[in-house]
Amino acid sequence: KNLRVAFIGLGAMGGPMAQHLLSAQFEVTGFDLSAEARERFAAVGGVPAETVAEAFNGADVAVTMLPNGKVVQDALFKDGAWQSLSADALVIDMSSSAPNDTRELAERLHQKGLRLVDAPVSGGVKRAVEGSLTIMAGGASDDIDQADPILCAMGGQIFRTGPIGSGHAMKAINNFVSGAGVLAAIEGVLLGRTFGLDPRTIVDILNSSSGKNNATEVKMKQFILSETFGSGFALGLMAKDIRIAADLSKALNLQLPTLAGTADAWDAARHALGPDVDHTKIAQFVKDQA
Ligand code: NAD
Questions:
Q1: Does residue 176 share a domain with residue 157?
Q2: Which residues belong to any copy of the 3-hydroxyisobutyrate dehydrogenase-like NAD-binding domain (predicted)?
Q3: Fewer CB within 10 Å: N-end or C-end of the chain?
Q4: What are 155's strand-pairing partners?
């Protein structure tokens, strides 16, 4: 029988991801708080629902792609929405949630006879549209086996990271390294430009040298120097992810000064610019502070 999938969160990432499930012939019912997101989903052949419970109606699998783990728990448990899922449904949280929230959610779901896999993604809107996301999956291996056809429809590479929450821990680590790289690239270019170097030349040389990273290879020219700031990943989401990594280091009693400083810088930028601007706008904040 064809798996029935409920997809909750049809935003910048969830929209194109759900579209790949439709292309792979899954029966997908979707819900998002935003009417515009629901309309976009309907326009590509999805069945939009008016509530989470309506989307869940008899679904074998629930996929969540929401801002954070708290929102995921709300969506599943508010008004008893989970009761509309099929009896032993699998929940796949693909949001970038905090690993400790994920463990708590797994426990809550378990008590209801439901199972959870955490399967956050990397690659941004571009690779969500291509269906070539990197996916990091945590949970019981039988559950990940069951999730696999769904994950394969959206992802290029699927890594199994270990027990529940380990995918979300890995995602926070990735975004710490990525977010630190963005700041280093911005500060490096600002330093060079102030000295008198040409910014595009700086980026070209970094990319031909040991200083290259995703920010120098993609974000710097495409979104920052061009001042288009259109990566599709919000500043508030990046700040949240790096704070998750910083909280994790605290919980594990590790002093990691670069992580702490990176989390503080992204939080300060979120405070100054608001959570909804593109995360690449942190370049303006760095410049103003400098
Ligand atoms: P987004 O803001 O574009 O989408 C989130 C969607 O969730 C919105 O459409 C919003 O209306 C909806 N929503 C919020 N609360 C809801 C609720 N209670 N019920 C139903 N819908 C609700 O964000 P996004 O960029 O798609 O990010 C989603 C997740 O993926 C986040 O955890 C983010 O950190 C992560 N992520 C984003 C990117 C990226 O490049 N944008 C990349 C990797 C991971």
A1: no
A2: 165-285
A3: N
A4: 133
Structure tokens at 162: 């270990």
Co-location of 216 and 148 in the same domain: no
| Known active-site residue 287 | no
The ligand 1 atom nearest the CA atom of 240: 34
Centre of ligand 1 from the C-alpha of residue 66, in Å:
4
Atom of ligand 1 nearest to the CA of 125: 40
Rounded distance from Cα 184 to ligand 1 centre (Å): 26
53 within 8 A of 29, measured Cβ to Cβ: no
Residue nearest (by alpha carbon) to ligand 1 atom 5: 11
Using a cut of 0.80, tell me whether the model's pTM lies above it: yes
Q: What is the dihedral of CA 194, 196, 201, 203, to 10 degrees?
A: -20
Q: Which domain covers residue 29, as residue numbers?
A: 4-163
Instruction: Tell me: do 176 and 129 sit in the same domain.
Output: no
Last residue in a domain, options 119, 143, 163: 163
**Is the domain of 197 the same as that of 115?**
no
Cα–Cα distances (Å) from 209 to 202, 204, 217, in that order, read 10, 9, 11
In this structure, what CATH number is given to the domain that contains residue 45? Answer: 3.40.50.720
Domain boundary among 163, 183, 202: 163
Q: How far is the CA of 11 from the centre of ligand 1 (A)?
A: 5
- The answer to whether the beta carbons of residues 87 and 32 sit under 8 Å apart is no
User: What interface predicted TM-score (ipTM) does this complex get?
Assistant: 0.99
